[in-house]
Write a structure and sequence with these properties.
Blueprint: H1 3-15, H2 22-30, E1 36-40, H3 44-53, E2 59-61, H4 69-79, E3 84-90, H5 91-95, H6 99-107, E4 112-118, E5 121-122, E6 128-129, H7 138-145, E7 149-153, H8 159-167, E8 173-178, H9 193-204
Parallel strand pairs: 1-2, 1-3, 3-4, 4-8, 7-8
Antiparallel strand pairs: 5-6
Amino acid sequence: MSEHPRAAQIAAAVKAGFVLDRRTALPALIGRHQDFLFVAGLAGTSKDIAALTDDGAHVYTMAGAMGGATMIGLGLALARRDRKVVVVTGDGELLMNLGSLATIAVMNPPNLAIVCVDNGYYGETGYQQSHTSLGVDLEKIATGSGIKRTMTVQLESEIAGGARLIREGNGSSFVLLRVKPTDPPAYKRDFDPSACRVRFRSANLPR
């Protein structure tokens, strides 16, 4: 895609309230990444988290399994109740499995937080508009599903509040992080799912 259409998309997104830069806002929201176990959705959010953690052993990044991140995160939170689990996924990936939010609300593990990096576009397939740039509000869907601790972060002044929410342990939480449709960090993570699974299980799950 040429620069001119992308520039127009970014300008329109900023006008609609998607103003944060994912490359700085997400690390600020997460803070000390070693405090968490991560499940990252495919595409941009996997690059976000791999770059933040240097593709660490406390991270399981997805590829080619769109819609699976939230339920894998739920299973991990139930298996490791002694650790805080953060699912970092995009608006496109979450839209593929909205029903997972209802299951998470019913189970309500206190050690699970979901961060949805919402840029309003499907970045992996050519930056077509996603539903969220056309009026769909994923925080309202999370609230309607029964998740009681939710927040939308779209300004720098709101990041600290979002960071506190994902670290508190009074039930599952959901943070919608609205960002501009700019590219994620250019990080080449390991795409071998078997190797990543073995590494993650060996480092983080009981044997």
